[in-house]
Amino acid sequence: MPATDRPLARRWRLPFAAGALLWLGMMLGGCAYTWSASLDGNETRNLSLDTVENRTFPHRPGMEYELTRRLKDEIATDRRFRLTEGATDVKLKVSLVRVTEPNLVEDFRTGEPAEILLRATAVVEATGDAFPTGRSKRTITVSTSYTPGLGDSRRAGLDRLWRDLSREILDVAADIEWAPRSPVE
């Protein structure tokens, strides 16, 4: 059947679909496009953050700065929050209390570590009028590992650890519905 004999709707189906896909690709392919959780129906909250307090023992200097830097990076891409100073909806206080790096697997031939676990624990206190009791305090532990024998570096492992911990911390600041409803000690 010649193209002119087909109904008009069928003749334009393919060009329309191709145009729609092209338009969608251009809209989603922007330089500043990010994925973020904003499905809770709440508006963007102003959040203030002090430098993370380092309470590790034995003391692990410098880790608080790495976590603070990563938290600020995560806040910048999270649409639930806007990092501000002064009057805020949520004030976030974070204390890094434990960082461990035990060997998970050792190479039998050399005795060198083949896989190393990274685990970090932080105490997070989020305060603000949005919380039923005025604040929410939680202890968060995250872990990841790195494998030096396969070319994975400690730096890459720590980057994953700080990323995961930062995201969990921000979830505490955003989790208004699950905040404790009774007074917190």
Q: Report on the biggest sheet.
A: 7 strands, mixed
CATH homologous superfamily label: Lipoprotein like domain
CATH class, please?
Alpha Beta
Label the CATH architecture: 2-Layer Sandwich
Portion of residues in beta strands equals 25-35%
Total domain modules: 1
Structural class: alpha/beta
Number of helices: 4
Q: N-to-C SSE series?
A: HHEEHEEEEEH
Mean pLDDT across all amino acids: 81
Helix content: 25-40%
CA-to-CA gap between the ends?
Answer: 79 Å
CATH topology: Double Stranded RNA Binding Domain
Low-confidence stretches: 30-36, 179-185
How is this structure best described in words?
The protein has helices at 8-11, 13-28, 63-77, 154-174, and strands at residues 45-49, 53-54, 81-83, 90-100, 103-106, 113-127, 135-146. With 185 residues, it is of the alpha/beta class. The chain has a single domain, classed as Double Stranded RNA Binding Domain (2-Layer Sandwich). Strands 1, 2, 3, 4, 5, 6 and 7 form a 7-stranded mixed β-sheet that branches. A hairpin with a 6-residue loop joins strand 5 (103-106) and strand 6 (113-127). It is flat.
